[in-house]
Amino acid sequence: MLVSSWSIRRPTGLDPRVVDALLAAALAGAGCIVGRQYHPAGWRPFDGWAYLLSILVSGPLAVRRRWPTAVLAVTCVAYVGYLALGYQPSLNFWGPIVALYTVASIRPARTAIVSAVATAAVIFYSGLAARVLSLEVCIAQAVLAPGIAMMFGANTRLLAARNDQLASLTARLREGQRELARRAVVEERVRIARELHDVVAHHMSVVSVQAGLARYVLASDPAVAGTALDTIATASHEGLEEMRRLLLVLRVEPDAGHHPAPGLARIEDLVERVRAAGVPVDLVVHGHRRALLPGADSCAYRVVQEALTNVLKHARPTRVTVTLRYEENDLSVHIGDDGGGPPPAARADETAGHGLIGMRERAQLYGGTVTAGPRASGGFDVVLTLPTPESGA
To answer: From CA 348, how far away is CA 380, in angstroms rounded?
Structure first.
């Protein structure tokens, strides 16, 4: 894996090119100043050629990140020329080492190894040119100095590669979070659409049945007609209120003046509306009624509402029993009718549409299940089972 030549960053926040220029100037300046002031015996005096070669050894480090291998080549050749002319070796020793570190930190391992071998040969030659080091020391110096530069360079290259991978993973994570947020919005809108379907289907079914009843008895029984009209008014008002609440959710503007999503605490009101529509409904509760988590509570209410709406739409004279059974770890809701109206097969085909699909998907959101189908003895059953963890209420 190639690492960008600008992957190495300094903690100071300075532009890396400025850092490299300062480094090159410092090494070249230090070599020239020390060479000018220090004249050990046996070495050629520090003259104009020494200045030029010292600048050639350290000066290219200013562009070491842009052309690392070329900089190493120029530095090594200049240092060999400096040594060949008999100048003091130690003054420009660090130029090739820094250049090798740069190659190891930027270029692939194969290029770095070739560069390390070339640098080791130059360092070995500098040890021999010193004329005071043994062969063993020259070899050790030629191995250790490039080896250490390679080790630090390889670690820097690995760190830069990991930083690049981390940046890529971070970008992918952000994209994934945006996608999850988008999907959450879509799923919420689908849920709201189902809520609207439930609200409209149920209340319009009540209105339709009551309107037919009022028209039928308007002349013969004005009192019953008046009761039917009252039911129509109540159902339409409640339907409008629930639709307004759902539309407020779409605008993402909280409104404390509207009621929360209906739950089983309002199940008696739902049953009364269906009774007022002309369908006898019995409500049976087994076990101790307890508060559920809001989502599960609304889910149970909506399943009962959808099942009763189907009865209003499909059944003729019939009787419905809604049974709530509170167990230790779950809630079972059973809605069953006695078989009035269309044949069970027709009822099953129609219920298997969007209504039953919506019930099942809603229940799955909260870890529950919904089963529905005709009874062998006639009639139709819808059964919801929901786990009921502690509500925290």
So the answer is: 8
Phi-psi region of 160 (alpha: psi -120 to 50; beta: other; left: phi over 0): alpha
> Can you list the alpha helix ranges (DSSP code H) found in 38-67?
48-58
* pLDDT recorded at residue 132: 77
The whole-angstrom separation of Cα 377 and Cα 230 is 36
122 three-state secondary structure:
helix
- Do residues 287 and 325 lie in contact, with contact meaning Cβ atoms separated by under 8 Å? yes
* Span 367-381, pLDDT tens digits: 899 999 888 877 889
- DSSP letters, 126-138, are HHHHHSSS-HHHH
Helix axes 16-37, 48-58, angle to 10 degrees: 150
- The more confidently predicted of residues 13 and 164 is 164
Task: Give the span between the Cα atoms of 171 and 268, in whole angstroms.
Answer: 52
**Residue 27 and residue 95 in contact, taking contact as beta carbons nearer than 8 Å:** yes
Evaluate whether 104 touches 150 at the Cβ level (below 8 Å): yes
Q: What one-character DSSP code corresponds to residue 107?
A: S
Dihedral over Cα of 362, 363, 369, 370: its sign: negative
Does the structure show a pLDDT above 90 at 284?
Answer: yes
* Bridging pattern class, strands 281-286 and 320-326: parallel
| Tokens 């529905």, located at residue | 372
Q: In this predicted model, which residue has the larger pLDDT, 186 or 79?
A: 79
pLDDT score of 371:
92
Q: Is the pLDDT of residue 277 over 50?
A: yes
Structure tokens at 342: 């269309």
pLDDT at 363 over 90: no
Element (DSSP H or E) covering residue 372 = strand 369-374
- Kindly give the residue spans of alpha helices, DSSP state H, lying in the chain: 16-37, 48-58, 68-84, 94-106, 109-130, 135-217, 222-250, 267-276, 294-314, 344-351, 354-365
Say what the pTM is. Answer: 0.43
Q: 146: buried, middle or exposed (CB in 10 Å: 19+, 13-18, 0-12)?
A: buried
The whole-number average pLDDT for the span 62-78 is 90
